[in-house]
Design brief:
With about 425 residues, the protein is mainly α. Helix content is about 75%, strand content about 0%. Strands 1-2 form a two-stranded antiparallel ribbon. Helix 4 runs antiparallel to helix 5, helix 6 packs antiparallel against helix 7 and helix 13 packs antiparallel against helix 14. It is globular and about 70 Å long. The N terminus and C terminus are likely disordered.
């Protein structure tokens, strides 16, 4: 069936040029439908976002002229979705807010479409570092789905999965797994849910089991979608991290290069994209391990520059890029410059009501301790090591909690932004 749908979509695209004159000569109602819900949707499903964006913009203009508010909401939503995928988060938030206000006024605050719009609106806020606000909103979304459909419904199961994505993104891996398990009560074999569990398991130290799970999910996901390209990104990132751990740097470069190609092909009008930033990041970390110092610095600096332009300097989302730059300067025996980047990352993780990504936060504290040790300050070294170990314990609940007396005998594996404590 998916191949049939794909062929139908391709045929529509092929015919579109010959029938477009009719679309613009038709009556307003037909024209609205064809522009906003016809060609725009077809182009979007094919991953042709620039063409889709043009049709949604035209559809929006017509729906405004005709004062059709729900059609306006439809076009604002799709424009917001394209902006979000293109990492144009401010524009995405602006569009989703308009959708929310229209649907709230017409459909009501508790309507399911209104609730979903609120969820998408807050996806952008999460990306731009408004974590507390986004978490409050996703909790309200889950509660709303539960009240409407009950705790055992598929709709509520999907709501738990949505929230698990939030938790994964801010490094709350145990909480993400808990929500995925709630989701699996109704969606026991769903590969989207299993993918989140696999990625969390990897971060929590079950690398081989996670790798097998991700492989199964990836193969399953490939078969059912006309436009799967954007979904590949999370799998490419997983493989970059996995092969970085395994010291297979050729594979890291391979998947980092494939990651780069996605926005290059899909968002040609965009100069800065998170996938570009992550591609440079993993190239840089691999080059650092390979002792290709100049290549490492160039890629890591470019990754951070991309991230700063997308998310804003000192935002939570830039933390891992700042941490990577600090690792580079530690390798070059420049503890002071390393601390500049570490302080920026640390400040961002401390900027909300609770410490974000305890694992990355612990990595940062541990590296800060190393910079002071290089300068002979053992007091600060042990102080930061103790803080790091307490935060590791938040994630790795069955690991030993070391004290400063044992900090210099710490058994860790450094994964370039991920450090696992091993029991003695």
């Amino acid at each position: 069936m998916s191949l049939l749908l794909q062929q139908i979509s391709i045929n529509i695209l092929t015919l579109s040029k010959s029938i477009i004159f009719f679309f613009f000569q038709a009556e307003d109602g037909i024209r609205d439908f064809c522009l906003s819900r016809g060609l725009g949707d077809v182009y979007k499903r094919q991953g042709l976002y620039e063409e889709a964006r043009e049709f949604y913009q035209q559809g929006l203009k017509i729906s405004i002229e005709n004062k059709e508010e729900l059609d306006q909401a439809f076009n604002y939503y799709n424009l917001g979705d394209i902006h979000f995928k293109a990492c144009e988060y401010e524009a995405a938030i602006e569009n989703f807010e308009k959708v929310y206000q229209i649907r709230k006024r017409i459909l009501g605050e508790k309507d399911n479409l209104t609730l979903f719009t609120l969820k998408f609106w807050n996806d952008g806020k999460l990306k731009l570092g408004k974590i507390d606000e986004a978490l409050e909103a996703i909790d309200a979304f889950v509660d709303g789905q539960t009240q409407i459909f009950g705790d055992e419904s598929n709709s509520t199961a999907w709501a738990y999965w949505y929230r698990s994505q939030y938790y994964y993104e801010i490094g709350f891996y145990n909480e993400a797994i808990e929500d995925c398990k709630r989701s699996q009560k109704n969606l026991p074999t769903n590969t989207l849910v299993r993918t989140i569990i696999g990625k969390c398991d990897f971060q929590l130290g079950s690398e081989e089991a996670a790798f097998k799970e991700i492989e199964i999910c990836l193969q399953s996901r490939k078969g059912g979608f006309v436009n799967f390209d954007l979904e590949y990104a999370q799998y490419y990132i997983f493989y970059c991290e996995y092969y970085l751990l395994k010291k297979n740097y050729e594979k890291v470069h391979q998947y980092a290069s494939q990651l780069y190609e996605i926005p290059k092909n899909k968002f040609k009008w965009v100069q800065n994209h998170m996938m570009y930033a992550d591609s440079y990041l993993y190239h840089g970390l691999a080059f650092l391990e390979e002792n290709q110092i100049d290549n490492a610095r160039e890629n890591l600096e470019t990754a951070l520059a991309q991230a700063n332009k997308i998310f804003g300097e000192d935002s939570y989302s830039c933390s891992k890029y700042n941490y990577a730059m600090a690792k580079y300067y530690v390798s070059q025996n420049d503890p002071q410059l390393a601390r500049n980047y570490l302080d920026s990352a640390k400040f961002a993780l401390e900027s909300q009501s609770q410490i974000l990504n305890p694992q990355l936060y612990a990595d940062i504290l541990f590296l800060l301790g190393q910079t002071y040790l290089e300068e002979g300050d053992k007091v600060k070294y042990f102080e930061f090591c103790d803080g790091a170990l307490q935060n590791y314990q938040v994630q790795f609940k069955d690991c030993l909690l070391y004290t400063s007396d044992a900090a210099d005998d710490l058994l860790c594996v450094d994964l370039g932004g991920r450090r696992i404590i091993k029991k003695k």
